[in-house]
Amino acid sequence: MQQKQGARTHTHTHTHTQKRHIHSVGELLYYASLSSPDKEKIAEMEEEITSPTNRRRRWWHLRQRWKMLGVFEINPEHEFFYLTSVIKEGMQAAIQSSMDSPIQETLTEEHFKAEETQTHTGFEMQTFAAPVFSKVRRSLDMSEAEYMSSICSVGCYLQFVSNSKSRADFFVTNDRRFFLKTQSEREVRFLLTNLHRYIEHLEKYPHSLLVRFLGVHRILVPGRLKKYFLVMQSVFYPDERIKSRYDIKGCEVGRWTDPETEGQHIIKILKDNNFKGQHIELGGEKSWFERQVEVDTAFLRSLNVLDYSLLLGHQPLHRDEQDRKHSLANLVIRTKKSLHFDEHESGVPLLKPPTDCNDGSTRPQPSSEEIPLQEIRHPVRSDSELRDFHEHHRRLLPDAKNAVHVIDGPQLRYFVGIIDIFTVYGCRKRLENLWKRLRYPGRAFSTVSPNKYCQRFCRWIQEHTE
After folding, report:
1. Helix (H) or strand (E) holding 55
2. Is the peptide bond before 238 cis (omega within 30 degrees of 0)?
3. How far apart are CA 134 and CA 164, in angstroms?
4. Which of 95, 115, 92 is nearest to 17 (CA)?
5. Could you tell me where the DSSP H helices lie in 345-466?
6. CA distance 91 to 87
7. Which of 90, 86, 102 is nearest to 135 (CA)?
8. Whose C-alpha in 131, 274, 286, 403 is 20 to 30 A from the C-alpha of 311?
């Protein structure tokens, strides 16, 4: 079982864990660690598939659908089964360590630099900045028990095969809620170096469209493999009714995917040129969406980053969803959810309109669907900053688990997220820019300066949003 050997430093903990037989020992460790309420919650989550007949029927249908979409179950015969097995075992211990640690509401430099190494039979698992990512998960209204239930479930991970040019390996949790993506050490170090700025941005703009990173880890099997990987919230969740998915960069060169290709078991991620003639129809959310894209891309520009993408998917809203989202009761509930409102931390009434400014000007009065959001646990140093914050936060989160990546328009529910934020405009990209200028004169390609990339990206959003 698991025995703690003591800590080398205050940030390094070594844990010896006996290797599980498939998943059974890991599951015993997991359930043994939970409190009674958490066990009851997990039981409720799995109750609907406990019947053998229902389970067999469910798995058969899921496997057929996965094969058609290019999502393959990583079973014992799969080339990545060993890797995903040790990832699961390591993640279980890492999340358990987070559950056993005190909750950190105020982050320090030590939390951002923390590295925890846990030694298991045959491999090591290293976790970076665990308190920081634990706080990100809490900001998404996600408990550690819920996170562990998904990441360390009995069901196998799924391999996601897309038409992306990335050399990274993509794994999806069995419930398709989280992505695990292998990254280079350089990319991981870039994220950790800028993690403080990333967290500050999310705290200032809690409805930011940037992908939510939930963990950074490294698996080391001596003499066999070393893999860095990130855990991310899936933008396309839940994906049962999503029919079309797009990867948008705001340019034209190489931005077409043949949607009719047969014989390739992959999810078709369409691109900019496939979106011609279409629009993102958001109605009253249009101005908020455009402004948030401007804010997020300005942040990426400050990091000297380019080549990021807007993931975009959509599905029709059910009639009851269209009716319910306009009701006052649901409006208040969703506003509270988006605020994480705590009356003990703020004396400002939830639905109170903004008051007049000290300079005599009047802040915009919200409509019934535009309730200004308050900044929680983020110091506002001036009245102009407060006005700026309210101006950029007039969005009501849908009643969905993946709310920060979901925007409801009049007829469609859109899934949106800005991903791939690790490409720095260094010497290599500058040379690539020079070559493409000669190769594609007068055409729009992706490798341009961060400033130009940001401007073009925002212009595409403005031209394609109604």
Report:
1. helix 52-69
2. yes
3. 29
4. 92
5. 383-392, 427-439, 450-463
6. 6
7. 102
8. 131
Contact 214, 232 (CB under 8 A): yes
> Rounded distance, CA 244 to CA 257, Å?
12
User: In sequence order, what are the beta bridge partners of 220?
Assistant: 124, 226
> Which one, of 203, 176, 136, 121, lies nearest residue 378 by Cα?
203
Integer CA distances (angstroms), 92 to 51, 165, 257, 305, 316, in order: 26, 31, 38, 33, 37
Q: Do 179 and 72 contact (CB within 8 A), yes or no? A: no
Higher local confidence (pLDDT), 12 or 36: 36
- The answer to whether residues 157 and 229 touch, using CB atoms and an 8 Å cutoff, is no
> Who wins on pLDDT, 19 or 291?
291
Give per-residue pLDDT as tens, 184-195.
999 999 999 999
Q: How far is Cα 231 from Cα 134, in angstroms, rounded to an integer?
A: 12
| Those residues with Cβ within 8 angstroms of residue 91's Cβ, 6 or more apart along the chain or in another chain | 125, 148, 151, 152, 215, 217, 231
The sheet with strand 406-408 has its strands ordered as 269-271, 244-248, 309-316, 412-419, 406-408
Backbone φ and ψ for 371, nearest 5 degrees, come out as -95, 120
Farthest CA pair distance, the chain: 70
In the chain, the N- to C-terminal Cα span, in Å, equals 57
79-94 burial, b if ≥16 CB within 10 A, otherwise e?
eebbbbbbbbbbbbbb
Going by C-alpha positions, the residue among 242, 232, 196 that lies closest to residue 211 is 232
Residue identified by tokens 């394609």 is 464
Task: State the average pLDDT for the chain.
Answer: 78
Tell me how far the alpha carbon of residue 62 is from its chain's centroid.
23
List the structure tokens of 156. Answer: 């196998």
Which residues, at least 6 apart from 389, have a Cβ–Cβ distance to it below 8 Å? Answer: 204, 373, 375, 380
Residue 241: pLDDT band (50, 70, 90) is: confident
Which class for 37: exposed (0-12), middle (13-18), buried (19 or more C-beta within 10 A)?
exposed
| Per-residue pLDDT tens digits for 137-182 | 999 999 999 999 999 998 899 987 765 566 678 899 999 999 999 9
pTM over 0.85: no
Both tokens assigned to 112: 């951002």
Q: Kind of pairing, strands 123-128 and 170-172?
A: unpaired
- β-pairing, 178-183 vs 225-233, is antiparallel
